[in-house]
Amino acid sequence: METAFRLNGAEVTAEADDDTPLLYILRNDMGLNSPKYGCGLAQCGSCRVIVDGDVAPSCSITLASVAGKTIETLEGIGTPGRLHPLQEAFLAEQAAQCGYCTAGMIMAAKALLDRNRDPSDNEIREALERNLCRCGTYHRIIRAVRRAAREMAR
Amino acid sequence: MSDLSRRVFMLGSGALAVAISMLGSAPARARQSLNERIEIHADGTIRLRVGRIEMGQGFNSAMAQLAAEELDVDIARIRILPVDTAISPNEGFTDSSASIRSSGMAVRRAAAEARAMLLGTAARRLSAPLSTLRVDDGTVRSATGSISYWALVAEGSLVTTAPPRLKATADRRLVGHDMPRIDLPAKVMGKAVFLHDLRLPGMLHARVLRPPSYEARLASLDSALLSAMPDVRLIRNGSFLAVVAECEEEAVRALERLRSSATWRESETMPEPGDLYAYLRREANVPELSPSSSRARLSATYEVPYRMHGSIGPSCAIAFFEDGNLTVWSHAQGMYPLRSSLADLVDLPQEHIRCIHMEGAGCYGHNGADDAAADAALIARAIPGRAIRLQWMREDEHLWEPYGPAMVAQVSGRVENGRIRDWGYIVASPAHSSRPGGATRLLAARHVEPPIAPSFLAGFTQWAGGGSYNAEPYYDIPAQVDVRFVRRAPLRSSALRGLGAFANVFAIESFMDELAAEAGIDPVTFRLDHLSDPRARLVIETVADHFGWSRFTEQAGRGKGFGFARLNNYGAYVAVAVEMERDANGRFEIIRAVAAVDCGEVVSPDGVRNQIEGGIVQAASWVLMEKVDFDRTRVTSADWDAYPILRITEAPEVEVNLIDRPGQPPLGVGEAAQGPAGAAVANAAASIGPRIRSLPLNR
Helix and strand tally (H, E) in chain B? Predict the structure, then answer.
């Protein structure tokens, strides 16, 4: 079965069963690295991507559910020469330790900033509530999102 | 190595491609190894061989910083080679918060030695006295000429005429300064940096079906269900069951089908959960304290439950077996110990096994990484010529990782005229280390037929370390300390960040507060009254100052708490103060934490801050909410809903103050915050009241 969708600006088709979790399509069929398997249960946020503007757990939504939709992952939001302000901010704040949760964090933050250019700390925390970080870098991540929002407002 | 596996390496991450190009026949003089650790390449890069691993703690960045410092090159020229049993020095496990003081100092010496060789050769080549040379990003300059390290290497024949000399503290331009982590750019761009991202040609996907409980044995398997999936292979060896498929989703579907086709014999082998601490006391022969303590002598019992490492990325491994040789890619903490342990499991001489490290998610100790490598190795052994990617599911990690053990500590003491007159301490602890030192420590060893190790207890014939960490108080008090080992512990346990130091410091620092209250003395003052080590005093005073300890006024539902320890009484000094609130639902929430750390000479200030900050947040999570649940038969904390950890909505503001001591020996920092931070959180909750002596606070 072929399913077409838009991925990081390109039209793509995936050939897999309709009920295949999107995560495996993105990682194995599309060759992306950033969506991470963390729990397969939509509990940890490491697989989060943006689907039609909303953040979604790619481990728990099916291929069929994204037919015709637009998907963004960390790979699509910046280039090595021109990083997205969130990527720049995560580097500026050194907002990571192991970095396994980073992609999901940045995508959840991007979905927030795309609709709210000037979020409060509480809004940032709420937007990232479903993203777990075990290394304990939460306060750095909040600083990074704040910094990115400032940069994007310039 | 066959052509296929070589190609496989080349197609892997950049780091792996580097590893293999080193092993191949590079053109003459394109590179030169100056010693066991340093390799200068004609392309202007420097490759560093290390025996410890990056696991999110910033190890590679600190090593690059140390090497760039001594070699006088830009840090961007340094490449850290992955730990690989084919090329790397054997440094055992990456444990004990010892990476800077062991690997770091070895790298520093090796880099200084390499620099001396290069300078000696340059002096001869430039016909200039050694003392007149200076180095600028790898280019050696004399009054009249210059030559780069890379040109010297291309010309060949380095000589050792200059004695190696470590750079003087005052001459350092990198060490002690903030440098951005070298691994983060790739991580914020979604590059293939984790083992989980490694894809090898023809790679198959595997999943293991674990038994539902520790002692379960396979009773029957209805293989008809799987036969409807002709492309799926079943691997069966006793109670070790795995499915292998061409694509990942198929492997996951096959796993579910396998689960429904297996029946198990289970038995009730665990204590009643409510009886856990009594069970530990009985096993260690520690009598229960009588609840009535006289006013003259206080006594209290503190209890810490089993806690998970809880890596965000479940363990993963890739194995490839061909022509009698096994290659395993793993994110475990020790490639050499893994190799020797796998040798017994898969029955190969260890010379025929190569273990290569790639990063996993943060592990914080001995998690499922080694076990996943063992699973992958067993499967690869059964399917030669195909790379096997074995990914643990979330519940595999939650249910089977070796937890940080539950502990129970009994403290009694007497305070007289503001001074502690005596201190009695008994602690009962299961094993804090069951790292693979042989196949018996690998999970699959108990499931294969015949079992190599029928029980997790196999091999634990004597004291298995860790429970004594920080059991001796660092204060100047007459202390009697009795550490007892619980051999027959109910749950599998091993090294979790801090080991016994976490529970011991929680107990000691809680009891210090109880004695201070008894004496009517402020907890910070009381600690200082019992500490003569000026470095210990300074971290405490620094925290009290930055937190505003004496100005802080407690209100209803809002309190403060303090904790101090020196890791294992020889590592870094850490003090932490915490401000806490109890909400309308009775749940404790941390508002902010202020810490100070003295870890001797600091290599990477932000690296230390990040470790201490993260340690505080993780310890806060342990104390507030973490506890592995089980019933008489099974562990029941199977996912993040059943085992919640701190979320960003609950994360405190954290401030870390560094006390740098250039020239002093570096002291271990990675595990140093767990005890003091955990104690500060518990003490803050107690200041709101009443004191909770059995963790976690919010359950």
Answer: 17, 24
